[in-house]
Amino acid sequence: MMKEKKLHLDVWISAIGAGLTIMFVSMLCDYLTTSEHHPILVSSMGASAILIFYRPHGDLSQPWHVFGGHFFAVTCGLLSAQLLEIDSGLTLAQVGGLAVASTLVVMHYTNSIHPPGGGTTLFAVFSASQIPVFQIFLSVLLNVALILLLAIFINGFLPHRRYPNSLYLRFKS
């Protein structure tokens, strides 16, 4: 019975942490709206927040995976989007598929697998014709930085939820 109560508490802590994080990131992006090129909340960050708060000790939730995964995803997505301008024979669907495939390969070889990055890649591909490249790139990096900082801060209040793992292992030794 005690283990079940702890499980329910962890689910609620995860939900509150993920929800507050996304609300804060969204509010900050709105606050920074001072020009037409303002940062935006990228929808794949919702999946990252769930992963980070629900499985804070998991490999795919660790900061390098989150940062590297989204960084390489937005980079691959924006580079792939350039193919649409170079070769008009390609469709958006084909470029999206190529972008996701290349993102997976780059994430693998940089040891930064983070599944929500697939959404970031598609966001970059589908948005590149409507939003300036620097705005897409800046938005993704700002979103990731804020999520990671909030994850470290919020999880830091709970002794059994140290985030990131490397911080926990350093203090444990």
In words, what does this structure look like?
There is one protein chain. The chain is mostly helical. It is built from 7 helices and no strands. Helix 1 packs antiparallel against helix 2 and helix 3 packs antiparallel against helix 6. The protein is globular, with a radius of gyration of 17 Å. The chain starts with a helix and ends with a helix. The model has no long low-confidence stretch (mean pLDDT 89).
Concise summary:
The protein is mainly alpha-helical and 173 residues long. The protein is built from seven helices and no strands.
Detail the topology: elements first, then pairings.
Blueprint: H1 2-31, H2 44-54, H3 63-86, H4 92-109, H5 117-127, H6 133-155, H7 165-172
